[in-house]
Write a structure and sequence with these properties.
The chain contains eleven helices and nine strands. It is of the alpha+beta class and 278 residues long. The protein folds into two domains: 164 residues, dinb family like domain (Four Helix Bundle (Hemerythrin (Met), subunit A)); 87 residues, SCP2 sterol-binding domain (Nonspecific Lipid-transfer Protein, Chain A), CATH 3.30.1050. A hairpin with a 5-residue loop joins strand 1 and strand 2.
């Protein structure tokens, strides 16, 4: 990685530049709030690369999660259509999204501002002991600090979903993007090693915008992250950070600005398995 995320003694995820996951959530909320304030009426309804969800649905999803984290009750609502939900988690997420579909965009923006302001105050009050407390995350047991890293990833990824949908790229560099990409990157060796069929001795390099340059090597049937990028990898995949997010999240709107240098067959095999997020 071109930047580092480490866990402090108290449990907070702290970056090499001194920022934490809470700082990065604030950055993400500020960025998506500013973007939402610029949306035209038709842009709120623009389709995204997440099947069944519009720009407004993406923002409603972010509101709904943070409102529940504040302890507010889930909407008493039953979605009429769950056909685009892929799993029970998707069906659960649809409740808060569908409950807000009748609202105009500016009303959703007002709720975004109110909920994220209250949530940030709640997070800023957490102690190191609070952040180290064990909890259950969507990917298994972890700590509150782990959950906040996941929230950075989810929020930044959905911001990129919105930006691709309306053709306004941005926020693809900086600490928030770096923490999100670092979260995704921890899974890449296992995904590439088990699913891509890459031969022993191969080295796959992923250059993700100005955020990260990762090298993954295959040895004895196992893939592992390499400490340095070798001068002549088997293949190098280069893409903007937003395209990387679209790929790993399995979106339908992956930009066509992904380049493959080296062994094209290996590159295509890796690209085919990168959609690993549920």
């Amino acid at each position: 990685m071109r930047d580092v995320v480490r866990q402090s003694e108290g449990g907070a995820m702290e970056r090499s530049d001194g920022s934490t996951s809470i700082d990065n959530l604030e950055l993400a909320w500020q960025s998506i709030t500013a973007l939402s304030a610029e949306l035209r009426d038709d842009e709120w309804d623009a389709s995204t690369g997440c099947p069944g969800w519009s720009v407004k649905d993406m923002i409603s999803h972010l509101i709904d999660y943070e409102a529940r984290a504040l302890g507010r009750p889930a909407p008493d609502h039953a979605p009429a259509d769950l056909s685009h939900a892929k799993n029970p988690m998707g069906e659960h997420n649809e409740i808060g999204v569908d409950a807000r579909r009748a609202l105009p965009g500016p009303a959703v923006l007002d709720e975004l501002r109110e909920v994220t302001t209250a949530r940030l105050a709640q997070l800023r009050a957490l102690s190191d002991d609070d952040l180290a407390r064990e909890t259950v995350t969507p990917v298994g047991p972890g700590t509150i600090a782990d959950m906040l890293t996941l929230r950075v990833m989810d929020t930044w990824s959905h911001e990129q979903d919105v930006r691709r949908a309306i053709g306004r790229p941005g926020h693809e560099t900086g600490p928030c993007a770096a923490e999100a990409v670092a979260y995704f990157s921890r899974f890449l060796p296992a995904i590439i090693g088990k699913r891509a069929g890459v031969a022993d001795g191969s080295v796959v390099v992923l250059t993700i915008g100005d955020v990260a340059r990762l090298a993954i090597g295959m040895e004895a049937g196992r893939a592992q992250a390499l400490p340095e990028v070798p001068p002549d990898p088997t293949v190098e995949l280069t893409m903007p950070a937003s395209a990387f997010a679209a790929l790993v999240c399995g979106r339908s709107d992956v930009p066509d600005d992904v380049t493959v240098a080296g062994d094209a067959a290996v590159g295509e095999a890796v690209l085919a398995v990168l959609g690993f997020m549920p």
